[in-house]
From TrEMBL:
<feature type="transmembrane region" description="Helical">
    <location>
        <begin position="268"/>
        <end position="289"/>
    </location>
</feature>
<protein>
    <submittedName>
        <fullName>Putative MFS multidrug transporter</fullName>
    </submittedName>
</protein>
<feature type="transmembrane region" description="Helical">
    <location>
        <begin position="144"/>
        <end position="168"/>
    </location>
</feature>
<feature type="domain" description="Major facilitator superfamily (MFS) profile">
    <location>
        <begin position="114"/>
        <end position="587"/>
    </location>
</feature>
<feature type="transmembrane region" description="Helical">
    <location>
        <begin position="205"/>
        <end position="227"/>
    </location>
</feature>
<feature type="transmembrane region" description="Helical">
    <location>
        <begin position="422"/>
        <end position="449"/>
    </location>
</feature>
<dbReference type="InterPro" id="IPR020846">
    <property type="entry name" value="MFS_dom"/>
</dbReference>
<feature type="transmembrane region" description="Helical">
    <location>
        <begin position="113"/>
        <end position="132"/>
    </location>
</feature>
<feature type="transmembrane region" description="Helical">
    <location>
        <begin position="239"/>
        <end position="262"/>
    </location>
</feature>
<feature type="region of interest" description="Disordered">
    <location>
        <begin position="1"/>
        <end position="37"/>
    </location>
</feature>
<dbReference type="Pfam" id="PF07690">
    <property type="entry name" value="MFS_1"/>
</dbReference>
<dbReference type="InterPro" id="IPR011701">
    <property type="entry name" value="MFS"/>
</dbReference>
<feature type="transmembrane region" description="Helical">
    <location>
        <begin position="180"/>
        <end position="199"/>
    </location>
</feature>
<dbReference type="GO" id="GO:0005886">
    <property type="term" value="C:plasma membrane"/>
</dbReference>
<dbReference type="GO" id="GO:0022857">
    <property type="term" value="F:transmembrane transporter activity"/>
</dbReference>
<feature type="compositionally biased region" description="Low complexity">
    <location>
        <begin position="331"/>
        <end position="341"/>
    </location>
</feature>
<feature type="transmembrane region" description="Helical">
    <location>
        <begin position="385"/>
        <end position="410"/>
    </location>
</feature>
């Protein structure tokens, strides 16, 4: 259906054709008086001329409203001028729409600044999980409890970290990323201060839960930000940096936490994070823009609609359109016919389409400006688990990355145990061993960025989600290899450097799994990707929080070699996941209702 054709508007002194700005009748008293800029919809036909003197009892504010969907490609027509009489009110100036451009069209410098701020947030969220382990012994001594009781703080943290995105992710999609970042940042800093100040273990564990809730935004929401500003073909490098900062933050937290805890005490580990988190909050409040495209469109529509309302309130026309009466069914307003035509005159109001809307047809019924939050929450809580238990791709990727994340948290818990008991390391020295995680992340980042660029340049990769898995097939084997080396070299007769290097080797494998999971699920499930990623994120963090509680029992019962061999064997079996998908992934996706629906939708969009 064509966009409705435009009509013209006149004062009693002057009539203007809104599409051309040409004067139809000129009885102006003062051409030098201020003018107003307005906008009109383009038409496939010549516009009709509507004169207010022909319908003297009808003003602009009395016309029925026609709602038109707005997207970033919608042409907001060129302004035309309206002269006013000397006794007429000064018309409002048009709004600036420069703040409402598509995030995909932002400059590379602008996107890079957003990427840097986002990755720093991810780094600090990961930092708080890594900084916890070096202080466990000190907290256990101060509160006269076992180290296992203190390690419950890891579980409460990961529980909040895993469950919060189920609520915060859909909230950010409906209301924007910026307010979620801002309020979560405030809660993040406050709860870190609570951890530093609290005098009881119970209060500390509650504060740790809310640290997990608030910091989860700086991990899961960052993935949404990258999807907001980068198209899929351009997303690999930003996602690689995101993964690098997540893993490097975990390792850095343990390194810094070890030295700070030994020098200043465990409470200063948390006060230091309060300072870092507060600085991040100030930077985000001042310089981080809203990146959610649907929210920017909604604000653009609201700005235009407010302007039209102000114009009409002062007796000027806003944006007017004619529609054939057959296109204006079920109207609850009284239509105004233009003289000598069968058309009806409407005031235009813009609406940003919600997910699932068809942004093609105008409507007389006001579409909702925001999705129904209760329904959004219901879907957001149910769909991830539906995908988890009905989609083989989501299930096996969730199992794979959950185990790899559990191995990462096992490293956080086992390094102090092993290096103190076997090598007699101090807390600061144990913290230094965690630098292996940082080094592994640093090595992985350029490798995973360059491999895709080289493969694309040489035409080695097919145009399918499975292309994301080619490099990770061999790279994922680094995780079981690192686990085996760590398990069987953690003894007095072997240099401490060997198990320390093994930590870095396993990190390279974890990095590849993390990056491949995010990229593959995003490419396969498109608009359902957030639900698929939320499912694996919940599993990943819940399992990661449980493993540190059992590691001492495993080591005590099975020994370092036996426990490590069991974990390495499981990791080796799960390393088959990308190989299976490379070979049979297309057939598996063909049997998926969700994945095939995304293929059909993508074809329609292109």
């Amino acid at each position: 259906m064509a966009i409705p054709e435009t009509v013209s508007r006149s004062h009693s002194d002057i009539t203007l054709d809104l599409s051309t700005g040409n004067k139809v009748g000129d009885h102006s008293r003062d051409d030098s008086l201020p003018s107003i800029s307005s906008a009109t919809l383009e038409s496939e036909k010549a516009p009709a001329i509507w004169r207010l003197e022909d319908t003297p009892n009808i003003g602009p504010a009395s016309l029925p409203i026609l709602y038109q969907f707005l997207d970033f490609d919608t042409h907001i027509p060129s302004p035309v001028s309206y002269s006013r009489k000397s006794d007429a009110p000064i018309p409002p100036e048009p709004p600036s729409l420069s703040a409402f451009t598509s995030p995909f069209s932002w400059s590379s410098v602008h996107k890079s600044c957003i990427l840097v701020i986002s990755c720093v947030g991810t780094f600090l969220a990961a930092f708080t999980s890594g900084a916890y382990s070096p202080s466990v012994q000190q907290m256990a001594s101060e509160w006269h409890v076992s180290t296992v009781a203190v390690l419950v703080g890891v579980t409460t943290f990961t529980t909040g970290f895993g469950l919060a995105p189920m609520v915060l992710a859909p909230f950010s999609e409906a209301n924007g990323r910026y307010p979620v970042f801002l309020w979560s940042g405030l809660l993040f800093a406050f709860c870190q201060a609570s951890c530093a100040y609290t005098k009881s273990l119970a209060g500390f564990l509650v504060a740790r839960f809310f640290v997990g809730v608030s910091s989860s935004v700086f991990s899961t929401n960052v993935g949404g930000v990258l999807s907001d500003i980068y198209h899929a073909p351009d997303r690999n490098a930003p996602m690689a940096y995101f993964c690098a900062f997540a893993l490097a933050g975990t390792g850095s937290g343990s390194v810094v936490g070890g030295f700070v805890g030994q020098a200043l005490g465990w409470r200063w580990i948390f006060w230091l994070q309060v300072i870092f988190d507060g600085l991040l909050l100030l930077v985000m409040a001042a310089w981080f823009p809203e990146t959610r495209g649907s929210v920017l469109l909604r604000r653009k529509a609201q700005a235009l609609n407010r302007w039209y309302e102000e114009l009409e309130k002062n007796g000027y026309p806003g944006l007017l359109s004619t529609q054939s009466p057959t296109d204006a069914n079920n109207s609850t307003s009284t239509p105004v016919s233009t003289p000598g035509t069968s058309s009806v005159v409407y005031r235009i109001r813009w609406r940003a389409p919600l997910d699932g809307d068809s942004p093609t047809l105008p409507t007389l019924d006001a579409p909702p400006e925001k999705p129904n939050f209760v329904e959004l929450m219901r879907v957001s809580l149910i769909r991830p688990f539906y995908l988890l238990f009905t989609e083989p791709v989501v299930f096996w990727f969730s199992a794979w990355i959950s185990f790899s994340w559990a191995v990462l948290y096992l490293n956080l818990a086992s390094i102090p145990i092993v290096f103190r008991s076997v090598y007699g390391f101090t807390p600061a020295q144990c913290g230094a061993v965690f630098s292996g995680i940082v080094i592994g992340a640093i090595i992985s980042t350029p490798l995973f960025i360059l491999q895709e660029r080289v493969a694309k340049r040489r035409g080695w990769l097919p145009d399918s989600p499975e292309a994301r898995l080619y490099f990770v097939c061999p790279a994922a084997l680094f995780m079981p290899v690192g686990i085996f080396i760590f398990a069987w070299t953690s003894r007095e007769t072997v240099s401490w450097a060997v198990p320390a290097v093994a930590v870095g080797i396993s990190t390279i494998g974890i990095y590849g799994i993390y990056l491949a999971t995010f990229n593959y699920l995003a490419d396969t499930y498109h608009c359902y990707a957030s639900s698929a990623i939320a499912a694996q994120s919940c599993c990943r963090n819940l399992l990661g929080g449980v493993f540190p509680l059992v590691i001492q029992r495993m080591y005590g019962t099975m020994g370092y070699g036996g426990a490590g061999s069991l974990l390495g064997g499981i990791a080796l079996l799960l390393s088959a996941v990308p190989w299976v998908l490379v070979v049979w992934g297309e057939r598996i996706r063909a049997r998926s209702i969700f994945a095939q629906g995304m293929v059909v939708l993508e074809k329609r969009e292109h």
